[in-house]
Automatic annotation (TrEMBL):
InterPro entries to which the protein is assigned, alphabetical: Alkaline_phosphatase_core_sf, Phosphodiest/P_Trfase
Taxon lineage: Bacteria, Pseudomonadati, Pseudomonadota, Gammaproteobacteria, Lysobacterales
UniProt keyword list: Signal
Signal peptide limits: 1-27
Keyword Signal: yes
Keyword Signal assigned: yes
Record Gene3D superfamilies: 3.30.1360.180, Alkaline Phosphatase, subunit A
Chain coiled-coil ranges: none
Name under which the protein is recorded: AlkP superfamily pyrophosphatase or phosphodiesterase
Length: 423
């Protein structure tokens, strides 16, 4: 889809670089990416805490993250891209492209000739044909900077013929503390082998939020666990006198909204199964009318309903920047905040009376707000910056690494007030 362009843009970037007298890494490191002595480029560490809602911070559950924010920069919040789901937003964070443009348009997708993509299908998740834009670790590797990635969505795939120098598969059985220790060890290596870009993914806050809801004690406990893992990593870097020489960015992909008991719609009640197939369920519901049944499916679906609204893919609200990608099914139904759409068989399995949590709602909702914290030699200290869109993180990161930016939807401007130099 974006591949021919992909190559062309890379060639253009190479030609540009050929005209530079310094290597890309050094030239930008001198601006914002280097450590305070200027002797060695500062590595960049990107940490994602899945579903860490912006307002989970500062409530007593996140002492380490709050300290990081006090010593660096915190955004009031960060807006996720549509749909506010894990895989689309993780790929947005590392490409600067909205999901409609990078092609990971949902956690569940279908493409003719390629089949079905599901988060739980590790073969699909590791298949580069689903990941058709260049994540920052591929750009870094192409520029000669070693990268090391712990389970960031997409990092198990070879993309454009490139893999991270080191990568760890998604594995929930490895504790957050062990992951933190390993990532710290990567960054403690001698300059020759130390990754210049490292990333870590933590899923426990998302899991607890889904199971128990955003306000549950179990979710607060998961937040404390993720916070402790970040603290452990930060302390390890501090012990080795590396902390002030690493730029650390902590993000989340989206927030979490409470789903009250009974707030669920059966997808079979949205449209008869003889009229359409359901491509994706949940909160952003993708529906493909069957051959000859387009009119019937549209008549039933398009417009406003109790708890959801449906559009043809080309007619979704413009602010979502969504619906042009061939992977987006012909009809998209957006559930209202706090409502899920699932198969009737699963509705019956939901424990009665239990509050759950979901995301995937309108990214403009306060409940969907993601977190952003950054600390290190490139950042000012004790600054709170206004909210921005998550596409803006990529232009910041390529600048810190000093590598060419691929074409993207982001803008570094909202982040400039947080940078120590180059305002
Ligand atoms: P979501 O419901 O959109 O938040 O999906 C999040 C889920 O995706 C997590 O709870 C994990 O089970 C799964 N997941 C996250 N990262 C990966 C990965 N790198 N590979 C496979 N599955 C992942
Ligand atoms: Zn997520
Ligand atoms: Zn989730």
């Amino acid at each position: 889809m974006h591949l021919p362009f992909f190559r062309l843009a890379w060639l253009a970037a190479l030609l540009l670089l050929a005209g530079c007298s310094t290597t890309p890494a050094r030239s930008a490191a001198g601006r914002t990416g280097s450590d305070q002595t200027g002797s060695e480029p500062a590595p960049l560490l990107l940490i994602s805490i899945d579903a860490l809602r912006a307002d989970y911070l500062g409530k007593g559950d996140t002492p380490h993250l709050d300290r990081l924010a006090r010593q660096g920069v915190r955004a009031e919040w960060m807006n996720p891209s549509y749909p506010a789901l894990t895989f689309p937003n993780h790929f947005t964070l590392v490409t600067g492209l909205r999901p409609d443009r990078h092609g990971v348009v949902h956690n569940t997708m279908r493409e003719e000739g390629l089949g079905d993509f599901r988060v739980a299908d590790l073969a699909a998740v590791g298949d580069g044909r689903w990941w058709r834009a260049e994540p920052i670790w591929v750009g870094a590797e192409k520029a000669g900077l070693p990268t090391a990635i712990w389970a960031w969505p997409g990092s198990a795939a070879e993309i454009d013929g490139v893999r991270p120098t080191r990568w760890k598969p998604y594995d929930e059985s490895v504790s957050a503390a062990r992951r933190a220790d390993e990532v710290a060890r990567w960054l403690e290596e001698p300059a020759a082998t130390r990754p210049r870009f490292a990333a870590l993914y933590l899923e426990m806050v998302d899991g607890a939020g889904h199971e128990h809801g955003p306000d549950a004690p179990q979710t607060r406990e998961a937040v404390r666990e993720a916070d402790a893992a970040v603290g452990r990593l930060i302390d390890a870097l501090a012990r080795k006198r590396l902390l002030d020489r690493v730029n650390v960015i902590v993000v989340s992909d989206h927030g979490m909204a409470a789903v009250l008991p009974g707030h669920v719609v059966a997808v079979e009640d949205m449209v008869p199964m003889e009229d359409a197939t359901i491509v994706s369920i949940g909160q952003s519901v993708g529906i493909a009318p069957r051959t000859g049944r387009v009119e019937a499916a549209e008549k039933r679906l398009l417009g406003r309903h109790d708890h959801y609204e449906c559009w043809r893919k080309g007619e979704l609200p413009a602010r979502w920047h969504y619906g042009r990608n061939p992977r987006v099914p012909p009809i998209v139904c957006q559930m209202d905040e706090g409502w899920d759409a699932i198969p009737a068989a699963n509705v019956a399995k939901r424990p009665p009376g239990a509050t759950r949590g979901s995301h995937g709602y309108d990214p403009a909702l306060p409940s969907m707000r993601a977190a952003f914290i950054a600390r290190g030699p490139a950042f000012r200290k004790g600054i709170v910056i206004a909210a921005f869109d998550n596409v803006d993180v990529y232009p910041l990161m390529v600048r810190l690494l000093g590598i060419p930016a691929r074409e993207n939807d982001g803008d570094i401007a909202p982040l400039l007030p947080g940078l120590a130099t180059d305002k």
